[in-house]
Amino acid sequence: MKGLTLSRSFFDTCGQEAMKKAFPALVDRMAFGLCGEGSECFGFDDALSRDHDWGPGFCIWMDDADYRQSGAAVQAVYCQALQTFPDAEKRKDTGQGAGRVGVLSIQNWYQRYTGLPEGPETLAEWRPIPEAFLATATNGEVFQDNLGLFSRIRNHLLQDYPEDLRIKKIAARAAVMAQAGQYNYPRCLKRGEKVAGQLALAEFIKAGLSMVYLLNKRYAPFYKWMHRGIKELPVLPRAYALFAELAEADENSRQEIVEGICMLVVGELKRQGLTEKDDAFLQEHCDAIMAQIQDSALRKTHVMEV
Known about the structure:
Elements: H1 3-22, E1 30-34, H2 39-42, E2 59-62, H3 64-84, E3 102-105, H4 106-114, H5 123-126, H6 131-137, E4 141-145, H7 149-158, H8 163-190, H9 194-215, H10 223-229, H11 239-248, H12 251-271, H13 286-290, H14 296-299
Parallel strand pairs: 2-3
Antiparallel strand pairs: 1-2, 1-4
Helix pairs in contact: 1-3, 4-6, 8-9, 8-12, 9-12, 11-12
């Protein structure tokens, strides 16, 4: 059973009723679900995931004022409810995973992942937030949101980056893919610098995977889940297999695969109206991509500055 399914089962069979019984006047101001850190929140958990910070558990999000006044009492009832759940022993918490489930302040939760208690609004607020943090703040499932505050902020984040910032990030990823994969990787190999070559390839893969998410208008998760996460994305469905092939190929075959990935990206850039060129070298598309940005200050920044 997947962790998200197990968490929903705990909520449906024990947790929800316990909250209604103990806090009849407060339950309508709570939101319930499982989102945040952990592979189960993305649906990527497997048998290996079960050795730490995995098992039945869900989040109870409360407005900060309610949390400060009643959070401790709600947490106590939550812990009691967990003990009545048949699979309670499957929950294995570590110190590093503390605070992933149980009672949480809505404002503190979003502050943790976006730097702001109700999420970003302006370009200046959006720009410094790491992609993986936004992916973490919008994954999982909300089982029930009676107050609506948690979902209002979540739905705002789920609309993806402001379009100008998405385009800026696409330009930056194109520049890194060109520099690291198309230019530096083969040159490092010709010089016999194999460690530098592996670093260049890693930079290409990371930028390339991020590019796939951006073209899908999705946030890239933590690096170890980036490849797994593109498997079901609708835009560039071939990318998952191509990156897997790149990782397994020998040095003689990798450059051809790199170029194939770049041409795939060029085709999608054209489809989204971000370039008109057919050139396989992604650096040649950066100016055209940057020209699509409407905000003049952002358009004038260096292509690599995001």
